[in-house]
Amino acid sequence: xxxxxxxxxxxxxxxxxxxxxxxxxxxxxxxxxxxxxxxxxxxxxxxxxxxxxxxxxxxxxxxxxxxxxxxxxxxxxxxxxxxxxxxxxxxxxxxxxxxxxxxxxxxxxxxxxxxxxxxxxxxxxxxxxxxxxxxxxxxxxxxxxxxxxxxxxxxxxxxxxxxxxxxxxxxxxxxxxxxxxxxxxxxxxxxxxxxxxxxxxxxxxxxxxxxxxxxxxxxxxxxxxxxxxxxxxxxxxxxxxxxxxxxxxxxxxxxxxxxxxxxxxxxxxxxxxxxxxxxxxxxxxxxxxxxxxxxxxxxxxxxxxxxxxxxxxxxxxxxx
Length: 320
Known about the structure:
- By secondary structure, this protein is of the alpha/beta class.
- Helix content is 29%, strand content 23%.
- The chain is globular, with a radius of gyration of 20 Å.
């Protein structure tokens, strides 16, 4: 990126990639997963940064060289990047650098395409069980449900015996969400979310909310929770200040927790648990990344425009 703005500020440049330093590896990239956060970097919403700048948080490929003190990875290993790649790095490119402690080995039999659509999504969704275990029959509200993280959350909630309630803005995604495992789908542009959740839960309300939107709709999400309910906020797609009634939160003894996946990855115990949990379910077919569409690296601008168009069901992946 040579300026701040929309996807049009991106260009493909020929650059020299330095040799990996201590604790770093160089990866020959096979596929790149696009994330909403990158569009916020492009727009300047995450603050200014030196330009020109690389971009990207997530990719999969093969290690081509390692720097000093790298342990657990060798040249030839197939790997993917976990959440938390510092901004001075970038995952969009033919060859990229990455700290080795942010890598995970690609499961046997999984393609780079699938690997680039796996770890950001399922590690982010892992918060649902990491901070408030799902009890059998627990209803879980999942906003932005057609996103790659939302679809991963649906799979995780089902795997743990919960009831996934998907929330989406338009009716056009209802059937697709049901095909991908949502037990109930609420269209927020047409329905009162809190009322609809109460109806599908027999008046009990949901035990957990996994919310990527926040903003003005957050009070309705809280109103849909049962006593002692737990709300996890991991995004701000609403784009406006978040307000809610403090007495309501007090009366129902609700818990609100902010969440960023990079903090989970930085916790050795949670990281180990999450990777093992996800690997096991990828292996037995319980988890499968949902890919909306693929683009070539030369089509990177069109790929980000697709992401901003909000029509996708699942992950947008760029192949290299």
